Amino acid sequence: xxxxxxxxxxxxxxxYAPDYRGVHAAKDIKKGETILYVPxxxxxxxxxxxxxxxxxxxxxxxxxxxxxxxxxSFLATYIMQERRKEVTPFDKYIDxxxxxxxxxxxxxxxxxxxxxxxxxxQDQISEKIRDIQQDYNTICxxxxxxxxxxxxxxSEIRMMVASRIFGIQVEGVTTDGxxxxxxxxxxxRPR
Length: 191
Known about the structure:
The chain is α+β, with helices and mostly antiparallel strands. 41% of the residues lie in helices and 14% in strands. The chain contains eight helices and five strands, in the order E-E-E-H-H-H-H-H-H-H-H-E-E. It has helices spanning 46-51, 53-60, 63-66, 70-83, 91-96, 110-114, 121-142, 151-164; strands at residues 11-17, 20-25, 44-45, 166-170, 173-178. A three-stranded antiparallel sheet has the order 3-5-4. A two-stranded antiparallel ribbon has the order 1-2. Helix 4 (70-83) packs across helix 8 and helix 7 (121-142) crosses helix 8 (151-164). The longest helix has 22 residues, at 121-142. It is globular.
């Protein structure tokens, strides 16, 4: 990121456990001060996903209007394609993305899901699993190249996308995307 022109000297990463980290202030930050700068060439946008080889096929079939989670599906597709390339401008970023996904509720074991009995969360997990399966089946039925991605891989990357992307403006265009380092910033709800 530094080689690409990013600046994040006011921030630091803390590791709480091997697969659990967070971003903290490295020094006092004044109101209105820039805490993170990531240049456009370091950002993966939804438009890049639309223009990718498989993304273009999905775009041509109007999947932006037909999928349950179109933004997540397009960006997941982009990441899965880039992961298969020997060289990509985003290889360092893609390399640091999570490899394990068992902390996402849709991947909980049956035993772990029993801990949630009696809560509405059980139904939400089941609904999310059905939605992902439906989007995956819809894409596979019309874009044969998509079958190179397994349902498991698609589910994992789609959940990773949902936990990392956010809305941004790039050159006046409102879009969604991956912004390295910023994707680790957490916030309270409501934002």
